Amino acid sequence: MTPMQSRPVSRHSLGYRFQRSVRRDWQLWVLLIPALLFFLIFCYFPMYGVQIAFRDYKAAFGITGSKWVGLKHFEAFFDSYYCGRMFRNTILLNVYGLIFGFPIPILMAILLNQLNSKRFKGFTQTAIYVPHFISTVVLAGMIYLFFSPTSGIINKLITSFGGESIYFMIEEGWFRPLFIGSDIWQNAGWNTILYIATLTSIDPQLYEAATIDGATRMQKIRHIDIPHLIPIAVMMLILNCGSLLSSNTDKALLLQTSGNIKTSDIIGVYVYNTGLGKAQYSYTSAIGLCLNVINFVIIMTVNAISRKLSDISLF
Q1: pLDDT band at 3 (very low <50, low <70, confident <90, very high)
Q2: Do 40 and 276 contact (CB within 8 A), yes or no?
Q3: Average pLDDT over residues 152-162
Q4: What is the arithmetic mean of pLDDT over 180-196?
Q5: pTM summary value
Q6: Domain-wise residue ranges, the chain
Q7: Are 299 and 241 in contact (CB under 8 A)?
Q8: 3-class DSSP state of 239
Q9: Angle at 166 between CA 160 and CA 168, to 5 degrees
Q10: Is residue 68 helix, strand or coil?
Q11: Are 210 and 220 in contact (CB under 8 A)?
């Protein structure tokens, strides 16, 4: 074979199979192009700007023209006075939300699956999906309205039973219950979609066989529904563990007051106030990069533990 001759492409090589797939299913590849462009433009191309976390970014000099400072901003964040409090508040808020909020969609999906009336089941599903579409600003306004110490319906009920009005929004002990409770109310119904889809895909013959064997409704749930839900529930748990340092910054910012700042001062709010309010872009970029690395380590660790203990993992 002369140097000018090309080596023949093997039919088992990855390149040959890719070319064959493109020729055979080119319509599908054309449909895939917008999605690929979306991720390239909005997810991968912006990663070029991550380097400002290691620079003293000045808009006049651009990204590459700004001075390289290494780990200066990372050290400044971990040496800051409120760093420990912000980490503690963020982790506790997400851990409590995971403990109390994660099982509820599973329970709701199991209960919905037991409804025999299709009309009532459809109405119930619609009713629990609606809160998901309420904007964060409107939800925060509802919380302020319902928990108002003077005209809020919650305090009206408390005083009607002889109690005293509670200033929910200025007491630091009530921030986490209000934040987590409102999040469960807003998103628990929407999160049942995946579990309901899993339950509806179960072979009906399993239920028929269980009925013939004399199984009760609870026994069907225990031996049929729950085993089918465990794999998807474990995968969702792994994904949720990958966001233990990421919170709903918008809602935390709207619910934050001078009275509850000791518990509402989370990292996301600090990044917003410092990055946009004080224009410290390099400093806050370093914080965001640090959080993403920690979240990545957490999700990889939880995934490895799950794979070892239950043979269920994302990858």
Answers
A1: very low
A2: no
A3: 90
A4: 94
A5: 0.84
A6: 14-68, 82-135+183-310
A7: yes
A8: helix
A9: 130
A10: strand
A11: yes
